[in-house]
TrEMBL record:
<keyword id="KW-0804">Transcription</keyword>
<dbReference type="Pfam" id="PF02365">
    <property type="entry name" value="NAM"/>
</dbReference>
<dbReference type="GO" id="GO:0003677">
    <property type="term" value="F:DNA binding"/>
</dbReference>
<protein>
    <submittedName>
        <fullName>NAC family transcription factor</fullName>
    </submittedName>
</protein>
<feature type="domain" description="NAC">
    <location>
        <begin position="9"/>
        <end position="152"/>
    </location>
</feature>
<keyword id="KW-0238">DNA-binding</keyword>
<keyword id="KW-0539">Nucleus</keyword>
<keyword id="KW-0805">Transcription regulation</keyword>
<dbReference type="InterPro" id="IPR036093">
    <property type="entry name" value="NAC_dom_sf"/>
</dbReference>
<dbReference type="GO" id="GO:0006355">
    <property type="term" value="P:regulation of DNA-templated transcription"/>
</dbReference>
<dbReference type="InterPro" id="IPR003441">
    <property type="entry name" value="NAC-dom"/>
</dbReference>
Length: 168
């Protein structure tokens, strides 16, 4: 059953999908234009700005500390260790962890990244963490290879309501 909004869900519902569910249910259905079980995951180019500047009206969040996006950036970052974003960069700390269903059927990969904010000539590690999920590459009829991505963005042990002070 597809749900169009969190408003249609019972009180107390929490959106807390497993890694496998993000890939096998949400990302696969998105790629194949099938109805999603929940339509409140936004499409957004998460690499255009700092993580604390991303949309906050994302209803697909867990206690306002985890945010989910379908990444719509035009770049294929799958083989890059860093990705520029705003006044900083995301750096991979765990690369290409295989994801499989209980029957050992390979469904995709997961990267874990941490945001480093540029401060002067240095980069300072922040408490923002991103889990990036990819399904296996798909070849479209026009032979273009796409790598669909869903982003699970988390802030660890910090308030997401406060934005950091401007860089000196």
């Amino acid at each position: 059953m597809a749900v169009n909004s969190f408003d249609e869900l019972p009180a107390g519902f929490r959106f807390d999908p497993s890694d496998d569910e993000l890939v096998d249910i949400f990302l696969m259905k998105k790629v194949h234009n099938q109805p999603l079980p929940l339509h409140d995951i936004q499409e957004f180019d998460v690499f255009q700005t700092e993580p604390w500047m991303l949309p906050r009206d994302n209803r697909a969040s867990l206690e306002n500390r985890r945010y989910y996006f379908f990444d719509i950036s035009n770049c294929n970052f799958q083989n890059m260790d860093t990705r520029a974003a705003g006044n900083g960069e995301w750096r991979i700390i765990e690369n290409n962890k295989d994801l499989a269903l209980p029957n050992n059927h390979f469904i995709g990969r997961k990267n874990t990244l941490v945001y480093w904010r540029k401060k002067g000539n240095q980069f300072v590690k922040t408490q923002w963490m991103m889990h990036e999920f990819h399904i296996a590459r798909i070849v479209e009829p026009n032979k273009k290879i796409i790598t669909p991505t869903v982003i699970d963005l988390t802030v660890e042990n910090a308030s997401v309501s406060a934005r950091p002070p401007p860089s000196p």
